[in-house]
UniProtKB/TrEMBL annotation:
Membrane-traversing stretches: none
Lineage top rank: taxon: Bacteria
Domain NAD(P)-binding: 6-182
Record's protein name: SDR family oxidoreductase
Length: 284
């Protein structure tokens, strides 16, 4: 049995779709906080089990009989470490023999504050003794494009990354990598730095949007503090805004760049170009 936590999230659903290409539905366990949101998965023959990161008592039963688990990192930044620990502990109690975890690019050395909980989670996994693989995912290209409507309206992306290069990849690429390590052998004990084939700056992203949309869009670089103010002004919680602004500053120092090609090699194909995702987001 292959279990995917956070299975109704955007990455979780893509992992399940990829697994279904080679694994029978009745061999997949979708671990979800709210089973009522997973009827579509049940209808396809996937086993849906309640497993809430914040309710440890639900986790061990959700992992019963599981041979491999993908722990998708919680979205509750600055509070996810105890949630991750609960899943790892439950995997140990349930006797799960293999665990994969979605970490952050260069989590062991990254200056970004977002890397701290990932680094700590990796340490908990190592201490658990469960054979594991660490998938250090770079930024999702789709996350850059969340600001696309505002950029088209105002003619600018904003950030604090200066000329830092982002090796951002499509969520579908990271899902494919997760499916590979779950369904093939030889990954336990390994750490993969997962990044796209072609990095880009935010200025290059803006130029691509301009070319494809026919509208002039530029990149306006701000200080970290000013970018944080923009994010809070857009309605983001203060803690999250601070972390995202800090990540941009870290990117200006190379924290979100990698050219090792591990993602391409793992999934056996080139990564999806940023230009393709921009075109999709624009409806082209």
């Amino acid at each position: 049995m292959y279990a995917v936590t956070g299975a109704t999230g955007q990455l979780g659903r893509l992992v399940i779709e990829t697994l279904l290409e080679t694994i029978p539905a009745n061999r997949i366990v979708a671990v979800v906080r709210n089973p009522a949101k997973a009827h579509d998965l049940t209808d396809r023959g996937i086993t849906v089990r309640e497993g809430d990161y914040s309710r440890p008592d639900t986790l061990a039963p959700a992992l019963a009989g599981v041979e491999k688990i993908l722990l998708i990192s919680s979205t509750e930044v600055s509070g996810r470490l105890p949630q991750h620990r609960a899943v790892i502990d439950a995997a140990g109690w349930a006797g799960v023999p293999f665990l994969a975890y979605t970490s952050m690019l260069h989590a062991d050395t990254s200056p970004a504050r977002l890397a701290i909980e990932h680094r700590q989670t990796e340490e908990i996994i190592e201490a658990s003794g469960i054979p594991a693989v660490i998938l250090r995912n770079g930024w999702y290209t789709e996350n850059h494009l969340l600001a696309l409507p505002a950029a088209l309206e105002h003619g600018a992306f904003v950030g604090a990354a200066k000329g830092g290069r982002f090796s951002s990849a499509a969520r579908k690429d990271y899902a494919a990598a997760a499916a590979v390590v779950l369904t093939s052998d030889g990954h336990a004990g390994r750490t993969y730095e997962l990044a796209s084939d072609h990095a880009f700056t935010l200025s290059e992203l803006a130029a691509e949007v301009s070319q494809l949309s026919g509208k002039t869009v530029v990149y306006n670089d701000l200080s970290g503090a000013d970018y944080e103010s923009v994010l809070t002004g857009a309605g983001l919680p203060a803690d999250l805004a601070a972390l995202l602004a800090d990540a941009d500053v870290a990117a200006s120092r190379g924290a979100l760049f990698d050219d090792g090609g591990a993602l391409r090699l793992l999934i056996g194909r080139p990564t999806i170009p940023m230009q393709n995702l921009v075109a999709t987001a624009l409806g082209i």
